[in-house]
Amino acid sequence: MKGKDKKELIFDAAVELISERGANNFSLNNVSHQAGISKGGLLYHFPTKEELLRGLHNYIIQFIKEKIEEESKKGGSYTQSYIGACYGITRSKEIRAYSSLMNYEWDQSIEGVWNDLYIEVTKKLSKELPEEWITLIALITDGLWTKASYYSEKELNSAFAFLMKLVHK
């Protein structure tokens, strides 16, 4: 298995582990066990837990960007693509892992990785929306990712449809 494939395997295992058992179970031993590789194999790619954690955040961000890109291929505005992607991944294991990791170790380097995504999204949304709408959409999509489990599919579908109507007015 190539290095990139092995890293993908490790990230998938970490996401699965965190989404199912929470960030408190995030350890090099648990991730290597979940991935079915030796701890030494894991350490070859990620010499420290912090490097794995930063890589994992980048992996989740790349997942989000790919979903936005997939939505954009359906046509419509960037705003529609962004909201559609954020809604579509609400119950994904990647977003469950993100939500769990938010309350884990969050240092400036990790915040910087996420800030880069928010800056990119804000720039693209600002071409289509007034500033107050951009802030509102950011708050709503963050809420989708962190609090969606409190709502039924019907409630989420209804809120999503309403939001899409609002941005089209």
Provide a descriptive summary of the structure in words.
It holds the Pfam family TetR_N. It comes from Terribacillus aidingensis. This protein has 169 residues and is mainly alpha-helical. It has a single domain (3-167), classed as Tetracycline Repressor, domain 2 (Orthogonal Bundle). It is 76% helix and 0% strand. The protein is built from nine helices and no strands. The protein has helices at 3-21, 28-35, 39-45, 49-72, 78-88, 93-101, 108-126, 131-147, 153-167. The radius of gyration is 17 Å and the shape is elongated. It starts with a helix and ends with a helix. The model has no long low-confidence stretch (mean pLDDT 92).
Structural class: mainly alpha
Let me know the largest β-sheet: none
Outline type: elongated
Q: Which regions contain 5 or more consecutive residues with pLDDT less than 50?
A: none
In the CATH hierarchy, the architecture is Orthogonal Bundle
Number of helices: 9
Give the total of beta strands: 0
* Oligomeric state, counting identical vs distinct chains: single chain
What's the CATH superfamily, by name? Tetracycline Repressor, domain 2
- End-to-end Cα distance: 50 Å
The average pLDDT score comes to 92
Percent range for helical residues?
over 70%
Please report the first level of CATH classification, the CATH class: Mainly Alpha
Any idea of the CATH topology?
Answer: Tetracycline Repressor, domain 2
Number of domains: 1
